[in-house]
TrEMBL record:
Domain Prepilin type IV endopeptidase peptidase residue range list: 106-213, 223-330
Tagged with keyword Transmembrane helix: yes
Transmembrane stretches, start-end: 7-27, 74-93, 100-118, 124-143, 155-174, 194-217, 229-249, 255-275, 291-308, 314-332, 344-366
Identification of the protein by name: Leader peptidase PppA
GO MF annotations in UniProt: aspartic-type endopeptidase activity
Family: Belongs to the peptidase A24 family.
Gene: pppA
Prepilin peptidase A24 N-terminal domain location: 11-91
GO BP term, example: signal peptide processing
Membrane topology designation: Multi-pass membrane protein
C-alpha cells in the first residue's frame, strides 16, 4: 500500500511540477498562470494534451518542439521530476492524510520560490505569504504541522531574526550611518519595534512600531530614530534583564520579545508593500539607494518556514542553508564568475531537510556532544 501511495504521489507531483513550470515562467512576468494555454515560447504553437504529459513528452520529442523543432530547456522535465520525487518521498515519510496534502503544498511553494529566485533574484509576495498562510491555517484548523502557538512564534521569530541579520549587516556596511528607506514603513520601524520589545515586551514593541507607521502615514515629515541607536538599545535589553533582578523580563524572554516584535513589523510591512504594488504596479516602492545585506523576500520566506518548522527546526534550516550557500555559492562563483547569488533556494533546501529530519539532526548533534 505504501508503494502504491508513493507511485501515486510521484504522478501527482509530476503533474503539479508541470504547472509549477508555468508559474515559474509567467508569475515574474506579470502574466496569468492559468490562461492562455501553454504554448511554445519560440513559435507560439499551442501545446496539445499529448505534448503536456510530464517528463514523457519531453523524452518522446527529444527535447524539441514538434512544430518548430526549437529546443525545449531540460529544466522543464527536471522540475517535473523533482516535484514528483519530493512528493513521493513525503508520501513515504509522512503518509497520513490530510497532513500529506499540506506537505505537498509546502513542497510545491518552495520549489516555485526557489526557481523564481534563481531566475529573477526575487521572491514573489503571493507565494511567500501563501506558504505562511497555509502553515498557520493548518496549525489553527488541524494542529498540523505543529500547534498554532508554536507556528505563530516560529513565523514571527524567523522573520525577526533574518530582519535583524540584515539590519546589523547593513549597519556594519555603512559604518553606523543611517540607511536609506522608503516611508512610511521600513527597517527604521522594525528596528524601533525591536528596541522597545527588547526592553518592555512584544506587545509594547509592536505598538511602538505600528504607532510610528501611523504617524508616518499622516505626517509630511516621517519620523525615525537612528539605526545605530535603535539596534544598540535592542542589544542592551537582554543585558539589562540579566543585570537587574526583578526587571520583569529574563534575558531569554527579552531576546524572544525583541525578535517577535521585529518579525511582526516585518511581516506586516511586507503585506503593506505588497498591497501598494498591487494598487500601483508602476510605482517605485523601494529606495534605489537602500543598502541590503539580505533581501526582504528572504525575511518573509524565513517567516513562512518558521510557521512550518517551529523555532528549533528553523535553526537547523538556517544552518543548513548557510552551509549549502557557502559551498555551492563558492563553486558557482568559480565556474561562472557570478557574485550575486540568491539565498532563497538554499533556505528552501534547508527548510525541506529540517522539516523531515530536523529533530533527528538535533538529537544526533546533542548525542555527539554528549548533551543527552
Amino acid at each position: 500500500m505504501t508503494g502504491l501511495l508513493a507511485l501515486f504521489a510521484f504522478v501527482i507531483g509530476a503533474v503539479i511540477g508541470s504547472f509549477l513550470n508555468v508559474v515559474i515562467y509567467r508569475l515574474p512576468a506579470g502574466l496569468s498562470v492559468v490562461w492562455p494555454r501553454s504554448r511554445c515560447p519560440h513559435c507560439g504553437h499551442t501545446l496539445t494534451p499529448l505534448e503536456l504529459v510530464p517528463i514523457l513528452s519531453w523524452v518522446a520529442q527529444r527535447g524539441r518542439c514538434r512544430n518548430c523543432q526549437a529546443p525545449i530547456a531540460i529544466r522543464y522535465p527536471l522540475v517535473e521530476a523533482l516535484t514528483g520525487v519530493l512528493f513521493a518521498a513525503a508520501a513515504l515519510l509522512r503518509p497520513e492524510f490530510p497532513g500529506l496534502l499540506l506537505i505537498w503544498g509546502f513542497i510545491a511553494l518552495l520549489i516555485a520560490l526557489a526557481f523564481i529566485d534563481l531566475d529573477t533574484y526575487e521572491l514573489p509576495w503571493g507565494l511567500n505569504y501563501g506558504g505562511l498562510a497555509l502553515g498557520l491555517l493548518g496549525a489553527r484548523l488541524l494542529g498540523y504541522p505543529q500547534p498554532f502557538s508554536q507556528a505563530l512564534d516560529g513565523a514571527l521569530i524567523g522573520a525577526g531574526f533574518l530582519a535583524m541579520i540584515n539590519a546589523f549587516g547593513v549597519l556594519l556596511m555603512l559604518r553606523g550611518r543611517n540607511n536609506a528607506w522608503t516611508p512610511p514603513w521600513g527597517y527604521p520601524q522594525i528596528n524601533l519595534a525591536a528596541a522597545v520589545g527588547s526592553w518592555l515586551g512584544p506587545a509594547a514593541g509592536l505598538v511602538a512600531g505600528f504607532l510610528n507607521v501611523a504617524f508616518n502615514l499622516r505626517s509630511p515629515k516621517p519620523f525615525r530614530i537612528p539605526d545605530a541607536l535603535a539596534l544598540g538599545l535592542a542589544v542592551l535589553g537582554p543585558l539589562v534583564a540579566l543585570l537587574i533582578p526583578g526587571w520583569g523580563l529574563t534575558p531569554l524572554s527579552s531576546l524572544r520579545a525583541w525578535l517577535l516584535s521585529a518579525g511582526g513589523l516585518a511581516l506586516a510591512g511586507g503585506i503593506y508593500w505588497w498591497v501598494q504594488e498591487w494598487r500601483h504596479p508602476s510605482a517605485q516602492t523601494d529606495d534605489g539607494d537602500e543598502v541590503v545585506a539580505m533581501g526582504f523576500g528572504d525575511v518573509i520566506l524565513m517567516g513562512f518556514l518558521g510557521a512550518w518548522l517551529g523555532v528549533a527546526n528553523l535553526g537547523v534550516a538556517l544552518l543548513l542553508a548557510v552551509v549549502a550557500g557557502a559551498v555551492i555559492g563558492l563553486v558557482v562563483r568559480r565556474m561562472t564568475g557570478e557574485n550575486k547569488i540568491p539565498f532563497g533556494p538554499y533556505l528552501a533546501l534547508g527548510g525541506l531537510v529540517a522539516f523531515f529530519f530536523g529533530q533527528d539532526l538535533i538529537a544526533w548533534y546533542l548525542g555527539y556532544i554528549g548533551a543527552r
